[in-house]
């Protein structure tokens, strides 16, 4: 049985990952298909260095895994349910209020 602290930690990790638009784009891309970093960087239009930093964050959060494929690594979601969670969260947020914009926390308390 999970404890409340464990649930909160898991949701905080997911929220931290989703707090950055590039990490959101990476998660959505990997939801569709596993990918090699070079392909992901090209698809997202970002440098490999920047992508590497975001992938490290997502790995640390436990949301993606690197799968060795020969001398290269392919990235994929750590669990297929994360892809479903992303879809569910996106549609739920859009269903609640699609015309809202969350202000950055440094400007004002968010939501």
Q: Outline of this structure?
A:
The protein has 111 residues and is mainly α. It is 59% helix and 11% strand.
Description of the molecule:
The protein is mainly alpha-helical. The chain has one domain (10-93): Winged helix-like DNA-binding domain superfamily/Winged helix DNA-binding domain (Arc Repressor Mutant, subunit A, Orthogonal Bundle). The chain is built from five helices and two strands. A two-stranded antiparallel ribbon has the order 1-2. The N and C termini lie far apart (31 Å). Residues 4-100 form the HTH arsR-type domain. GO terms for molecular function: cadmium ion sensor activity; DNA binding; DNA-binding transcription factor activity; lead ion binding. It comes from Halostreptopolyspora alba. Keywords: Cadmium, DNA-binding, Metal-binding, Transcription, Transcription regulation.
CATH superfamily: Winged helix-like DNA-binding domain superfamily/Winged helix DNA-binding domain
Largest sheet: 2 strands, antiparallel
Distance between the first and last residues' Cα: 31 Å
H/E topology pattern: HHHHEEH
**What is the CATH topology?**
Arc Repressor Mutant, subunit A
Number of β-strand runs? 2
Mean pLDDT: 87
Largest sheet: spatial strand order = 1-2
Number of domains: 1
Instruction: Specify the number of helices.
Output: 5
Question: CATH class, please?
Answer: Mainly Alpha
Radius of gyration: 15 Å
The low-pLDDT segments are 105-111
Strand content is 5-15%
- The helix-and-strand class reads mainly alpha
What sort of overall outline do the alpha carbons produce when their principal axes are compared?
A: globular
Helix content: 55-70%
CATH architectural designation: Orthogonal Bundle
Function: Metal-responsive transcriptional repressor for the cmt operon. Binding of cadmium or lead causes the repressor to dissociate from the DNA.
GO molecular function, one term: DNA binding
Pfam families: HTH_5
Protein name: HTH-type transcriptional regulator CmtR
């Amino acid at each position: 049985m999970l404890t409340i602290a464990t649930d909160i930690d898991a949701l905080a990790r997911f929220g931290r990952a989703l707090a950055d638009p590039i990490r959101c784009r990476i998660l959505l891309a990997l939801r569709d298909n596993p990918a090699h970093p070079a392909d992901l960087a090209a698809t997202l239009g970002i440098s490999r260095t920047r992508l590497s930093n975001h992938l490290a964050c997502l790995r640390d959060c436990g949301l993606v895994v690197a799968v060795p494929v020969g001398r290269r690594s392919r990235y994929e979601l750590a669990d297929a349910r994360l892809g479903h969670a992303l879809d569910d969260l996106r549609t739920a947020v859009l269903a609640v209020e699609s015309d809202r914009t969350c202000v950055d926390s440094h400007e004002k308390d968010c939501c």
